[in-house]
Structure formats: structure tokens, C-alpha cells
Design a protein that fits this description.
- This protein is mainly α.
- The chain has one domain: Four Helix Bundle (Hemerythrin (Met), subunit A) (Up-down Bundle).
- It has helices at about 15-45, 50-75, 75-85, 90-115, 125-150, 180-195, 195-225, 230-235.
- It is globular, with a radius of gyration of 18 Å.
Length: about 240
């Protein structure tokens, strides 16, 4: 997901065959995710001629491609851990991640039901485009954070076995948890892109969970990661400069 703490590292080098096998498994996982998203959207909507849903899927395809390039160029071991998350994550983080995944699924089902029953009504093209812009900018920032942090991972744990150190490059120069800003923007933008205020509220709940996760993760890093307190004194804000 969106945190700075790394999880598990595969310290051995990746041979060409191992990278190829990992890429195939990673792509398979992503294709299955896209299929699940498509089923949730079109089954609940009762139609497939829904252009906003197709654009949303295209956004995810583009993001998956960008993520693959970033991970396999800078840190393929992080791709491996995403296929097999470690069991040593914080319990509160596991609960948040599971809740986020369920809420994401619920958002797509709600958006489809909204499309079917017209709860939101007509939404202007401006709203759709604003949502698309938020999605693109949000995951652009998320990708920048991922490329700038060699310990970037989907669960919270201090990875002492890999010499876990504080990330200070790229967007980490400005805020301590830039990926959560990008993730929150994406969560809010997706409901707008789909033209559903019901889905927008679900995305808002996801963004709120990310903010809660930011606070809990930052507390963990300050307590357990050497050098993080000094970094926090230098980069004062967690998410939004001048606010928090």
C-alpha cells in the first residue's frame, strides 16, 4: 500500500530466470485484480457500456505498468514481498489493510449500483475530468515516493535485516509520508471519475483510514527506526506542509 516502512527483503540477487518468473506471477496477480474490479463494476451496474468504468480500469492498467517498471527497475524484492506479505506486520496495520481492501471492493460495487439505479443522477463531464486528474496526480506522487524509497512496502515493519534507513530523497524532502497524500487523492478521485457521490463517500472513508494509518506508522517509525526522530525534526510535517 502506501507506507515508508519496509517489510521483508529477499537479500539474494535476482537472476534473469527468477526475475522472469516473478514478473509473470506479479502480472498474473494484477490481471486477476483487474478482472475482480471489472466484475464488481459491471455486474453491479448491469451493463458494460459504461465509459467511466472503462476509463477507471484504464487508469489502473497504466498504474500497474508504471508500478512494474518502478519495482523491477529499482527493487524487485519488493515485488516478491507483495505476492507473499510477511506475517510480522503490526496487527493494527493488518486490520487497516484488510478494511481498505474491503472498502475498495465496496466502492466499486456501490458505484455500479449507483449507475444502475441513478442515486447520484447526471454528473457533469467536469466532475469526471476532475476525478481523473486527482487519480493521475495522486498515483504520480505515489510512484515518485515508491521510486525514491528503497524500503517502500505495503505493510508496516522495521526491516532491520536489510539495514532499514530513513528515506530522505524525492518527495520525502518535503513531507514524511508523501505516498499517503497520493493515495488519498486517488481514493477521492476514483468516485468522482466514476460519477458516483456514493462511491466518493466510500473513497473518503478510505482516505480517512490512510490518515489514521499515517499517524500510527509515524509513531512506529519514531519509536523504532534509528534516525527517524532527527528526520522528523528536519521535515516537520507528515502529510500537508504547514498543517500536519
Amino acid at each position: 500500500m502506501y507506507n515508508q516502512a519496509s517489510v521483508v527483503g529477499m537479500t539474494e540477487s535476482f537472476s534473469g530466470n527468477k526475475k522472469t518468473r516473478l514478473l509473470v506471477l506479479f502480472l498474473t496477480d494484477q490481471v486477476l485484480s483487474l478482472l475482480g474490479m471489472g466484475i464488481a463494476l459491471f455486474w453491479s451496474a448491469g451493463r458494460i457500456d459504461w465509459w467511466a468504468a472503462w476509463v477507471a480500469i484504464a487508469v489502473w492498467v497504466i498504474w500497474f505498468i508504471a508500478q512494474d517498471i518502478i519495482l523491477f527497475r529499482y527493487n524487485p524484492d519488493l515485488a516478491a514481498e507483495r505476492l507473499s506479505p510477511p506475517k510480522s506486520a503490526k496487527k493494527w496495520d493488518t486490520a487497516i489493510v484488510i478494511t481498505l481492501r474491503l472498502m475498495t471492493l465496496a466502492r466499486y460495487i456501490l458505484a455500479g449500483l449507483d449507475q444502475r439505479y441513478g442515486w447520484t443522477g447526471d454528473v457533469s463531464l467536469t466532475v469526471h475530468l476532475a476525478g481523473l486528474t486527482l487519480c493521475v496526480l495522486g498515483y504520480g506522487l505515489f510512484g515518485w515516493a515508491m521510486a525514491s524509497n528503497q524500503f517502500f512496502s505495503q505493510v508496516v515493519r522495521i526491516q532491520t535485516e536489510r539495514g532499514h534507513a530513513v528515506a530522505t530523497r524525492g518527495p520525502y524532502r518535503f513531507v514524511r509520508h508523501p505516498s499517503y497524500i497520493g493515495g488519498s487523492a486517488f481514493e477521492l478521485g476514483m468516485g468522482m471519475l466514476l460519477g458516483s457521490w456514493v462511491a466518493f463517500l466510500a473513497g473518503g472513508a478510505c482516505a480517512l483510514l490512510l490518515i489514521i494509518r499515517t499517524g500510527l506508522e509515524d509513531r512506529t517509525l519514531q519509536a523504532e527506526l534509528p534516525g527517524y526522530k532527527a528526520y522528523a525534526r528536519q521535515v516537520r510535517y507528515r502529510l500537508i506542509p504547514g498543517i500536519w
